[in-house]
Design a protein that fits this description.
Radius of gyration: 12 Å
Low-confidence stretches: none
CATH architecture: 2-Layer Sandwich
Mean pLDDT: 97
Distance between the termini: 28 Å
CATH superfamily: STAS domain
Largest sheet: 6 strands, mixed
CATH topology: Transcription Regulator spoIIAA
Number of helices: 4
Helix content: 25-40%
Structural class: alpha/beta
Number of strands: 6
Oligomer: single chain
Order of helices and strands: EEHEEHEHEH
């Protein structure tokens, strides 16, 4: 899985592409942890390019959310396609990780 990073007004917007699964989640988790060590004001994950999300991927998002909370960094995800959103909400992760429909909503 590849990702790009965009910085805007002390907010990191992380844009992963592909599958966030058992194979790719560890590397993405390390990259996310490294980004959070830079202490942005907020870290938002643009999930629009993620076409599959497994339990390993959910764990990476949860770890990012926990680190962010501990470090007082705003954290959220946005832009999921229908299938990924269904996995995210059915697993109950929308109760722990703020989810926004689009970037504009997330940036407010």
């Amino acid at each position: 899985m590849d990702y790009t990073l965009r910085e805007e007004d002390k907010t990191f917007i992380v844009i992963p592409k592909g599958r966030l699964d058992t194979e790719s989640a560890p590397a993405f988790g390390e990259a996310l942890a490294s980004l959070l060590e830079r202490h942005p004001r907020r870290c938002l994950i643009d999930m629009g390019g993620v076409d599959f999300l497994s339990s390993s991927g959910l764990q990476v998002l949860l770890a990012g959310a926990k680190t962010s909370q501990r470090e007082s960094i705003g954290f959220g995800v946005f832009g999921m396609n229908e299938m990924v959103e269904e996995i995210f909400t059915l697993s109950g992760f929308d109760r722990f990780i703020p989810y926004y429909r689009n970037e504009e909503e997330a940036m407010r």
